[in-house]
Automatic annotation (TrEMBL):
Domain of life: Bacteria
Domain Pyrrolo-quinoline quinone repeat: 46-356, 472-528
Lineage per the UniProt record: Bacteria, Bacillati, Actinomycetota, Actinomycetes, Pseudonocardiales
InterPro entries: PQQ_b-propeller_rpt, PQQ_MeOH/EtOH_DH, PQQ_rpt_dom, Quinoprotein_ADH-like_sf
Protein's UniProt name: Alcohol dehydrogenase (Cytochrome c)
Classification via NCBIfam families: PQQ_enz_alc_DH
Organism, as annotated: Saccharopolyspora flava
GO cellular component terms, A-Z: membrane
One GO MF term attached to the UniProt entry: oxidoreductase activity, acting on CH-OH group of donors
Length: 566
């Protein structure tokens, strides 16, 4: 039987449906690789996803500090709102990290939205809406985590696996490249990363049984430079960790769906990879299943894997290792810190992948143990058909994708912790393209849960803990003002003392937090911005709040303006 597809015609240009002038200052043309290399020194800006290539989510700004934060209040609010029918309407969330370039803010939303705003006032300068098919297959929410800006272009990915380059002045589309097979269940949600003259992306969709990959594109033309598959095919190094017969490797998952970090000295991208597929039925993919649940170091020029470290071999708990890899130096050694979903904090030598230390960072871990030398011993897993197995942490992990931060001044890491378990019951399913390939029914605990912002040193010693009654499901930000900012699922945005965890300030934002705060300054005034919009894969990390209001606001805070003197 041959299926014929009907041409849906041209989508409406949402940029024309308002009085927005579609004219932003041309600041994006002045952003290139040299500025991105030294992004942290431009403390008034937030030029790239983590604030700098190292992933520390740390700012040198200190106008808002432990003494002044108590006077901080809203400066402006941008209400994104929703329009029309969207894919996965019940799952959208505001998960982005805004970028700021010399007074212009660029921020992405769900379902193909991108906005340029005046970073001082919140006035909209332009908007773009991509035409995303209503029936696109999405695993875990209609979300987008941010954009990249360079050479007069704003780069963003879409739920239907496209990479777009938009004109940074007008918001008009410059080029559009397909980066995945949406029919097979591939999608995209990460913030692109500009390195040298390339835009780096990663695929999503591991729950549909796709083969993960990273890609690089020429930032001027969109020409494809390289692809790095994160599951080896037969005959390649690592293929011996998959069944020799069949095609388990071809649908093996390992999608790198979170933005990589980068070290210009090693010329390596440090990316985390996702779970194997099917998530919970390990019997159909015997072996360690490289490079799933791994930290991989990828040569940025060639796209080849230089080394790897697997955090959870033969994963049957859905413990992606996609979370950020924070780069820091200590004792003359180049290090990497990674808080994994499996509940352990890994510190590696980032030049060669050698394990330096591994320690637990959440109270309840019973799926298995990892010794200090890295030996993994599984203890509880769903290996029998139809028999429920309860384990900690649940499949959303002791920390989900939301990011930890590192403060070089305190030499501490700050991590949002989810202490919640789940029950998985194995249900074998035959693979069918474009259909979820979980291999189990999963029920996350609706009670007996808690969360925290916890501070750790590089040796895994916990220095302090700020406790919350609910799991912490948003990224944290730390600054030279000795502050840590974090949002709660119940809507509070809090500022903590980075030295001891004392809560210094709180603001109720009206919706739960599942995004990433950042900070910048304009004309000498520091601002802290946080996207507020509860959603995503809520049933995976906090099912008791499935009915909570979504929200769709970007709230920007500052200290009161000083009165004019006469």
């Amino acid at each position: 039987m041959t299926l014929e597809y009907v041409d849906a015609g041209e989508a409406i240009d949402h940029g024309t449906l308002s009085s927005v002038p579609r004219n932003a200052p041309d600041v994006g043309f002045r952003v290139g690789y040299d500025r991105l290399l030294d992004a942290r020194s431009e403390s008034h800006n937030w030029l790239t996803y983590y604030g700098a290539y190292d992933g520390q989510r740390y700012s040198l700004l200190d106008q808002i500090n432990t003494d002044t934060v108590k006077r901080m209040g809203p400066a402006w609010i941008f209400q994104a709102g929703t329009a029309g029918m969207i894919a996965g309407a019940s799952t959208y969330a505001f998960e982005a990290t805004p970028l700021v370039v010399d007074g212009v803010m660029y921020v992405s939303g769900w379902d193909g939205w991108v906005w340029a705003l005046d970073a001082k006032t919140g006035d909209q300068l332009w908007r773009y809406k991509h035409a995303v098919p209503y029936d696109v297959s999405l695993c875990c929410g209609n979300v987008n985590r941010g954009v990249a800006v360079a050479k007069g272009k704003v780069f963003t990915v879409t739920p239907n696996a496209h990479l777009l380059a938009l004109d940074s002045v007008t918001g008009e589309r410059v080029w559009d490249k397909t980066i995945g097979d949406v029919r097979a269940g591939e999608s995209a949600s990460l913030a692109p990363l500009v390195v040298k003259d390339m835009v780096i992306t990663g695929s999503a969709g591991g729950e549909f049984g796709v083969r993960g990959h990273m890609d690089a594109f020429d930032l001027e033309s969109g020409q494809h430079r390289w692809r790095c598959y994160t599951v080896p095919k037969p005959g390649e190094p690592g293929s011996e960790t998959w069944p020799a017969d069949g095609e388990a490797w071809a649908r093996g998952g390992a999608n790198p769906w979170i933005t990589a970090t980068f070290d210009p000295d090693t010329n390596l991208l440090y990316a985390g990879t996702g779970n194997p597929a099917p998530d919970f039925d390990g019997a159909v993919r015997e072996g360690d299943n490289l490079y799933t649940d791994s930290i991989i170091a990828v040569d940025v020029d060639s796209g080849t894997i230089q080394w790897h470290y697997q955090c959870t071999p033969h994963d049957v708990w859905d413990y992606d290792s996609t979370m950020e890899n924070i780069l820091f130096d200590q004792g003359g050694r180049k290090m990497l810190g990674h808080f994994d979903k499996n509940g352990y904090f890994f510190v590696l030598d980032r030049t060669n992948g050698e394990l330096v230390s591994v320690t637990p960072y959440v109270d309840r871990i019973d799926w298995g143990t990892i010794t200090r030398d890295g030996k993994v011993t599984p203890r509880k897993y769903p290996d029998a058909e139809g028999e429920p197995v309860h384990f900690y942490p649940g499949p959303a992990g002791a920390k989900e994708w939301t990011h930890a931060a590192y403060n070089p001044g305190t030499e501490l890491f700050y991590v949002p912790v989810q202490d919640v378990g789940a029950t998985a019951t194995r249900r074998r399913r035959e693979f069918r393209e474009g259909i979820p390939y979980w291999g189990a029914g999963v029920q996350v605990d609706a009670d007996d849960m808690r969360g925290s912002i916890s501070a750790f040193d590089s040796e895994g010693n916990e220095r302090w803990r700020w406790r919350n009654t609910l799991p912490m499901c948003s990224s944290v930000l730390t600054t030279a003002g000795n502050l840590v900012f974090a949002g709660t699922p119940s809507g509070e945005f809090v500022a903590l003392d980075a030295r001891n965890g004392e809560k210094l300030w709180e603001f109720q934002c009206g919706s739960g937090h599942h995004g990433s705060p950042m900070t910048y300054s304009v004309e000498g005034r520091q601002y802290v911005a946080v996207p507020v919009g509860w959603g995503g894969w809520i049933e995976g990390f906090l099912p008791g709040m499935l009915g909570a209001g979504h929200g769709s606001a970007l709230i920007v805070f500052a200290l009161p303006e000083e009165p004019a003197t006469r």
